[in-house]
Design a protein that fits this description.
It is globular and about 35 Å long. It has helices at about 10-25, 25-35, 35-40, 45-55, 60-65, 70-75, 80-95, 115-120. Helix content is about 65%, strand content about 0%.
């Protein structure tokens, strides 16, 4: 039931809701591990969003506009370390362009991450 990539606000809401539920609900975490496609089907996602979730593509999810707090927990769920997570966000911008939606489109063109990053 996914739609063509539209970049709509409603779609971003559904993507963030998926990750929010996954971050908080042990049953959703089990379903993620056992039948990811069934879990994805419970949300109204674009093909691009569903693909990013199947691939664990932190960079694309960031570019799509997922909130960093939600995305950080998803990365931890996937076993991704903090600085690798930051690198994945940077790589996402390099590969997919600037952040398309959400709060990060308004801050530094989606190019800046954290104070820790500046000191690397």
């Amino acid at each position: 039931a996914s739609r063509a990539a539209t970049g709509s606000i409603m779609s971003l809401y559904q993507l963030q809701k998926f990750l929010y539920v996954l971050n908080r609900d042990e049953a959703a975490q089990d379903k993620y591990r056992e039948d990811l496609d069934a879990l994805i089907a419970e949300f109204d996602l674009t093909d691009e969003e569903a693909g990013a979730l199947r691939d664990g593509d932190i960079g694309l999810l960031y570019v799509l506009g997922v909130n960093g707090q939600i995305l950080m927990h998803y990365a931890a769920f996937l076993g991704i370390e903090w600085f690798d997570y930051l690198d994945m966000m940077r790589d996402g911008i390099d590969k997919h362009g600037p952040v398309r939606a959400g709060v990060y489109t308004m801050t530094g063109g989606g190019q800046s991450f954290t104070e820790e990053e500046k000191n690397r």
